[in-house]
Amino acid sequence: MNQVTKFEGSHEDLIHDVAFNYYGNRLATCSSDQKIKIWDYNEAEGVWESNISFKAHSCAVLKTSWAHPEYGQVLASCSFDRSVIVWEETYHDAVKKWTAVATLRDDSGTVQDVEFAPNHLGLRLAIAAADGLVRIYEAMDVTSLAHWTMIDSFPVGEGPSKDEEGNHCLSWCTAKFAAQMMVVGCAKDHVAKIFRQDHNSKWQACEVLGGHGGVVHDVSWAPNMGRSYHLIATACKDGHVRIFKLTEDNQGGALSGGWTRKMFNVTRIADFPDHNAEVWRVEWNVTGTILSSSGDDGKVRLWKATYTGDWKCMSVVSAEDGANAFQR
Amino acid sequence: MMNRDMLKLRKDPTIPYYVGTVTSTTTAFPVTQRLGSPSSTESRPVNARHRPSPKGSGTQGSGQSHGQSQGQSHGQGQGPGVGSTSGSGSTILTVASGTSAALASPVTLTPTTTSTQTTNVSTGMTSSSTLTGGSSISSATGNPGVGIGTMSGTLQGSGTGITQQPFTGAGGAQASNVRTFKFDTNGALSALSASPDYSMVAVVGRDVIKILSVTDSGAEEMINLKAAVGRNAPTGSMDVKWGPTTGRDAKIATTGTNGPIFIWDIGTHNKIDRIIKEHPRSVHRICFSPQEPNLLLSASSDSTIRLWDLRIRDRPGIIMDAKDVVREVQFNPVSMNDIVAGYESGNIQRWDLRNVSTSEKKFMAHMGFVTSLDYHPSGRFLASGGRDRTIKVWDMEDEKRREIHTIPTAQYTSKVQWRPHKPYQLAASFKDESAVQIFDMRRPFVPLHVLTQHDKDATSILWKDTDVLWSVSKDKAFASTYIRGQTSFADLLSSGKATMNCYGQLAFTIASKNSYDSFEKDLVPRSGRPNPRSVALDGSAEATIYRTRQAGGVFDCELFNHEAFIYCAQNYSLDSDNVRAACEHNSNIAWQANKFRDSQTWTAIKLFYSDMAESAIIVSQGEILDAASTEMAAAANKQRNGRAHEDENEGSELSGTRTAKPTVPSLFAIKVSDAPIKRDWSHVETIRNLLEYYAEQGEVQMCVTILLVLANEKDLSEFSRSQQWFGSYIDLLSRFKLWSIATAVSQACKDPEIHTMNQDSTTIHTSCSSCMKPLISRAPTSSGFWACDKCRKVLSSCSVCHMTVRGVFTWCTQCSHGFHLQHAQEWFSQSAECPTGCGHQCFPEMLKIQLEQEQQLDNDRAYDSSFSYHYPRPLHLQQELASYSSHSHHRGGEISEGKESSPMQYSTYSSMI
């Protein structure tokens, strides 16, 4: 288990996303070289092995997301080529193969983010694109993934933004017993917003996570795990990692009795400039207790709350001199 | 770039370029001095310091221009420049191909025009005082490429609906900056071609044939050729080329609908000089020879390439029979007789103009037609774009015709062109794509720049110089993009990502700043594969290719102690009937898993919820509970002193550590039943805090296990977020594939939503045991099927009554014959043999005895242990289903072996049928 598997040389250009599947025993990497590569964990040897690599898009593959294994081995990927492709692993004569089962292409510009909804919402996919819309698709028949219906689409900010103006990003709230929510990074608006369905099932912009000095490159909604509050992390072009705490605003809820635009009090509980370079991605671990962030400084930083509730950098992963140095 | 250098040489520097029209008289502004070559643009951004002294050139210019203006009073321009004849207003244009334009201004210049000029298309006219002050003005255009002075006071005169993006005028001396701008031509455009000095550009589209004058910071419409020729204007122009001849011979060629080629005389009159109508079908591309200015090539759908010598008016073209629709044709910029053609079939073929009857062999370059070709300035390499959405680079000196670079693109190219002075780079416009991309061959997947000036499909491109790219688009605009000001595309791409799985492994990729600047640092020698003959486009010895320096991998950084989690999940007792025992057990388990804090927590809970006597003893020893709890315990116990003596014997059993005097009615001598204590003395608040603490840590395992163990505590069952804890814990268990534990947890939970969680969307498929076909019946009863529709057999029939067994199905694991339980009991009380007559001794006498003994044992053992682990029901079912099907499968073989000595087993099968 302690062996290090290196990705070096596995792609011909930058890798933009790495994603574990639900069980954490498969890994997908996607790259500017237009390919997706799937890695499987070899439990006996304790190493990750790449068993397949396939050309996925005709431009850089920006992000990829695994569906819940209940629906099979299903991946979605999005790209500069303006499409989202849903991939399914199929067997033909005992040969595994990834097949594009559906291509979702709207007149949307670059598709900048894609993420499967939490399992309890069904087989759904949220897509953020350069035209400033978030679209939600649903596979009507989970036994055949070829048909996806757009069940919702809503604008997130001030209209479309060009690629150079920054990207949109989104992250679902995975809490099973909370309202359907997601946080969306709104490109050139330099904010992230929380979207929720109102009583007419229309997605509405609610709380705003402000204070960003640039494009919000990535957002991540921490797994709630039954905490009394929610945590959202953002990665910003201004070099900061920020953590927002959402505590329930009881008064607002009590007054309206039903849907309310202000359900949470948002406080920024951490704001770290440590990367000192563009921060590209943030992601929580499965229990929502450790945050990872990666930036242009060539470092991955891991953040954890102390017993007093302060967030601190617990370790820095760097790749100096080609070797992975792991410092605590 | 070779191509342009040659053009430059052909130009006679003494010919004055200029043009102008003023209301009554035309003023020419001759070029008298050329300080730089038009295409040497490397020093472009630093203009100001190149400004020459006005004196010498000024005087000279004055003399010459004076003469010119008099000679041209009829209002026509002279030289290769073009005067706007249609202009009713006054336009003064200086088109200077050198760096310096000597400007004579006999009549019309006023301070007003000067001031507007500086805010508009500023060309580095030095200052208004110079303009007004003397009869001769020398002005150094700050940029060495093109200088155009547009007196904007007269701009409205041209009146052709110019909608230009506003230029931020720089009134100062350093006025001239290279800018990115866009110019609307009022018609969708399909092609463009620049004048030899790049001061003008011809743009054509379906309804547009126009000539624009272009500076570094803006463009003006000069001539609307379509309007100039009126109703006879050709339509459907798909391509345009500006002839290399200059001066009076300046020509442009355009294509028209269905094959005609129009040769326009723009040197003297803005009219069609000649129409070549020999192509019976449409012409896709025309091309002037860079060396021989009067040679024109045309590529047509009629499967021919024709070569025209424009000096001889009525001479038919030389026909090259290509036997395939010709999409594209290009001259080699170095070797004048070498041309290359691209075909509809995807082939590329080289021709030698000296011998057009034969040609080199075609080679397959693309799947689908060749959309665009461009010779590398070296004349050796050829870039081709194809319908197969690739751009390929060929070494035309290599007989084997292997591509040395391939770039996969999202759309197919409409035009590719090598970037001057950057041997590895080319720009491409794409079909159905508004963005123009610039690639470096050494980094095939990530373009250097993606230029998004246009709103609709960019149709064609042209490099003005190394840093300025011109493009035309269906959005009706001509755009000039200054590359240095553009965002590097790689900067828009994320450089890394880190993610963690439930085993605490970290997968990450990281890279330091991956901007364009560092791209060239990351070049490595190109290995032999996949192109054994890798050739460097820049002529250097070794070909290189980009290798990302991004580091990445997966390693275990122990972010989550999954082993302890799994151990605890598997071993924790969820038994709520015996809180004390369960807590003690769990405490041990946590201890073994090295979760010492959790272990202490369990001990504490055990104390809260076990008998008061024991807790009191431990309180007296001052071990764990704090003072407050002690007081509470003491208070609670005091209340009960009176009725506490009832059972001292049992109380003494509790602990060997109790040495206090048993006869004294003290705190320690109390044995109270659970119920009354818990009602009055509640730990709910403490437990609540405990749960909050664990929830905060993300330790849903503890939250859920505590809740389950204390499930009988009414006050805790209403805990607000318990649903979420259960949901998260079950989710976590599923991630570790601990499904049976997840099911056990969900079964143990009293919350209806959790309890029924795994019953949603659970489907059980049934199939016939004899033909293995799925059971699909037209009329299934509410409880299942009677018989298989396919093989017409009764399902799970009883061997005694031959009816389908519904309910408990019992079968012999040896001969696999099944029965109703009741029938089996009846039958085997009479006989040991199978009722089917298969001869199997299903129930020998000795087994009867053995079975009875076992039953007795089972009864004794049942529920003896408080920690008995309850398997979830579905698992039971699963195992039995499996065993059932395997038995029925091997039915025949085992009977013939007749293992009569084998022990008879009953298996029950809670039938879904």
UniProtKB/TrEMBL annotation, chain A:
UniProt xrefs under SMART domains: WD40
InterPro entries named in the record: Sec13/Seh1_fam, WD40/YVTN_repeat-like_dom_sf, WD40_PAC1, WD40_repeat_dom_sf, WD40_rpt
PROSITE patterns: WD_REPEATS_2, WD_REPEATS_REGION
MF terms (GO), sorted A to Z: structural molecule activity
WD repeats: 8-49, 272-304
GO BP of this protein: cellular response to amino acid starvation; mRNA transport; positive regulation of TORC1 signaling; protein transport
Entry's Gene Ontology cellular component terms: GATOR2 complex; nuclear periphery; nuclear pore outer ring
Keywords: mRNA transport, Nuclear pore complex, Nucleus, Protein transport, Repeat, Translocation, Transport, WD repeat
Predominant cellular place of this UniProt entry's protein: nucleus
Cellular location(s): Nucleus, Nuclear pore complex
PANTHER family: NUCLEAR PORE COMPLEX PROTEIN SEC13 / SEH1 FAMILY MEMBER, NUCLEOPORIN SEH1
Family: Belongs to the WD repeat SEC13 family.
Name under which the protein is recorded: WD40-repeat-containing domain protein
Species annotation: Lobosporangium transversale
Upper lineage: Eukaryota, Fungi, Fungi incertae sedis, Mucoromycota, Mortierellomycotina
UniProtKB/TrEMBL annotation, chain B:
Basic and acidic residues compositional bias, start-end: 891-900
Residue ranges, compositional bias (Gly residues): 74-86, 144-160
Biased composition (Low complexity): 62-73, 108-142
Molecular function terms, GO-annotated: zinc ion binding
Keyword Metal-binding: yes
Composition skew (Polar residues), residue ranges: 34-44, 902-913
Pfam families: WD40, zf-RING_16
This protein's name: WD40-repeat-containing domain protein
